[in-house]
Request: fold
Amino acid sequence: MNQTKLSSRIYQIVKAAAAAAVLPVMFIYVMVAKPDYHIMNAMSHVVVPVATWIGDIVTWPIRAVGGAIVGVGEISNLKAENEELRVRLDEALANKDAYEIAIKENQKLARELGVVRARPQKVTVADITLDNSAMGNNTFLINRGANDDIEPSMAVVSMDNRLVGVVIDAAPNFARVRSLTDADTNIAVRVVGSEVYGFMRGDGSARPNMGFFSDQEFQPAKGIKLVTSNISGVLPEGLLVGEMADDTDVNVLRPNDITRVMVLHFDTDGKYK
Reply:
């Protein structure tokens, strides 16, 4: 486009704008100097649209800036909401991961221990009141007895379900429990995750020992876990007894390690229904 055509185009735009600007002035003049309503009515059909158009042109930058400001505010709000939603999503995913890990750990532990989930029909919580350890006789007293349905041969476990001993007699308000380290202790056990059986015997020392294993080729080692096997029919199967300290001795929970126990009532006669 040459300079002459460009100048002519600009001139036409300026001329049209000037003419549009004059119309409102003429309209006001007619209203004040010569109030002829027929002329005013005719001019209004032209002046009002032109004035609206001019107003739109003049206020366009202001409206554009206002719209941009509103848009920026909305974008800022959306960003804040997105950040909050992302934080919540991360928390939900973390909780989901922790839940799945807990389930897998529980399943793994159950497989490792080979637990037979025999649930007692009743549990009595008791406190250890006296620990009697002398001459190989390691027994202790609990503050629950026959009045609480405590009977001989009931299993006594810690609050985290590890075997502590077996009830040997019960008075009305207390009972005597044989510890796993007592010289008269002889418990049938099973190596977790296997069909290897044996008997754990107490000798009055801090650690009972394994008498023999059913599999002569089995090699006991430190860390191997043992659970009750119920071969003798006295204790329920699957209670954690302890773990091997070496190839003969077993680490067990002793009464002086804890202060509170649970007595497990298994309903063999239907008395707890």
